[in-house]
What does this fold into?
Amino acid sequence: MNKSSIYISKGSKSPWKLIFPAICFLLALYIIFQSFSYVPKESQSSVEFFLVSILTVMPLLVVSIVFSTVKDFHFDFINKKYKIVKRIGFLGFGKWRTFETLNYISVYKTSDNFSEIKLWYNENKHYSIDIYRNEQEAINKGKELAKNLNLNIHTPDVDYEYSENKNEPIEIPENLRVIDAHISEGTRPFWHIILAALFFTGAFFSLILFYETFTLEMNKKNVRSYFDILELVMLLIIFGISFSLVKDYQFDFKNNQYKIISRIGPVKIGRWQSFKSLDYISVFKKDDYEYIINLWYNTNKHFSFCISNNSEKALKIGSELSKKLKIDLLDATNPHNKKWVEVTNP
It folds into this structure.
């Protein structure tokens, strides 16, 4: 590839992936059409009617936009510029930004078991190209992009690691399992708990309202009001979860397994998964005010434990984690001077 040329990577959506956003968009158009067809005669009622219609339509439009958006990647190697164009059909927007160097492409699994392609540039910065459910599809797309950009690619060892049938961890009775390390994000600030309680309480009373007002006599007014109540319930639950969710990480070194526990109050969800190796802890500078602590495992996968606004505090937490897990610590708070830190285990 001629590095002075301009490369454009055009994304596209599979037809089946456009069905859901198309349904949401058509439903939004239907509600808009019905709103104009059944406008109340009273001026005050008509204003309230339109406000309710807008509040109903907006989430549908947002969902249809999110699920139908694709990205185009433009690279101008002569002027060292790139542009990410977010496109819906033929409509797109984006702006040119500068870069110093393009470093490499990485493909690794997220904590949600998706495979993410990232382009790393300017030594320690990156942006997400795309996320895939299928690991091999992500690796193939990453290799194609790396070839076109003349870059190296870092992926898991697909020769023996990738398989359509995932290797499930061996089931071990809980009374025989030994937890070698338990790392917790701790507890939420008190004001987060208050907000979460208010959101969950609002969702609970909204469900009671739905139950008390529900009737089998269906008309357009009733359907619209039911839809609004259920939409409100979903939003309140989402907000409540976002202000109360905490994650814990448990490690069983004897059986090479880990478990990520998502915890909301007394409710805990998580399952054991296998790992090949715990590699190292890194303290990574995201920007001038944020430092991220990552635990790297299976060569190219990682957990992000916490974010700190102080490099010394982040390094202290990273040091404690490396001692607890008995692995190395990489100080990447200065992206131009990364160094391994010698950690003395107690």
